[in-house]
């Protein structure tokens, strides 16, 4: 719920502080303002555009494999999260930059701002779930490859994502179903402020923290296991290539399959690693609130708190934008499809065409 509460008081700097406090609060204030009004919108537009490209390319590649299906679903949720962030920023700019946070901004605009703000954690949680499923499935493919192909089929992976997503959304909807938006106007300054009431904040915080720490721990464990497996595969590949001078066609086909598996493994490792790095600021919110007195929306360090939450949002948007580069540089088939889609010339495209002709 931390992301839901951000920015509701970001521009309301209160007085009665010494000069040093005012300087630090001004620094936090303008840092938040620059990120929220200039940097994050660019990242949001980039996130929407890049994930549309991802979906188009993955559909062109085919959706037979479970990993590819998961990448498509991840692109959908990431794209929607970026779109919600962009809509929220537009409302923010209209409310505070144009109307100055006064009653000139309509009640509907305030409510739209809050709704888009509340939708971001929903979508980011779904992206977190899908990333965790991708990492776990790929880790299981390394640890017990024969059994995984029979048990974790593409359909079952998709079904698991749908069921767990429904559970996650149900808990969050239950915690926020009775939310009420109340608009208060200060008669002296004509400044408007939205108050959110009726949220089961204890339940929501407990769920959010448990889900965040559990998924991060699982993904980090998977990254470690996949990293070791990738290192072993690289050693085996180098030793095998040094021993074998010529191979029959069946051996070439097997080697191509192993190479593709290594590419998928690299893709998953980098996606999971960047996901972990990008979500560390969000995971530390609860720790900072427990250990720093006044680190809250209305506490002594409210400006630092609001600035920190905007930075956490920026990190999440950077994670959303990073996936297209990971796919492009570490997934050879994606790279070839991307070059064909945008009519770019690259040696991978020619190699893919030659491999297709050889198979035919």
TrEMBL record:
Organism listed in the record: Elysia marginata
Protein name according to UniProt: Chemosensory receptor A
Family, as annotated: Belongs to the nematode receptor-like protein srg family.
Protein origin, superkingdom: Eukaryota
Subcellular location: Membrane
A GO-annotated cellular component: membrane
GO MF terms, alphabetically ordered: transmembrane signaling receptor activity
InterPro entries: 7TM_GPCR_serpentine_rcpt_Srg (IPR000609), GPCR-Ligand_Int (IPR052954), GPCR_Rhodpsn_7TM (IPR017452)
CDD domains, sorted: 7tm_classA_rhodopsin-like (cd00637)
Residue ranges constituting the G-protein coupled receptors family 1 profile domain according to the UniProt record: 49-327
Keywords, ordered alphabetically: Membrane, Receptor, Transmembrane, Transmembrane helix
Membrane-spanning residues: 38-59, 71-98, 110-137, 158-177, 211-230, 264-288, 308-330
Principal place of residence: membrane
One example of a Gene Ontology biological process annotation: sensory perception of chemical stimulus
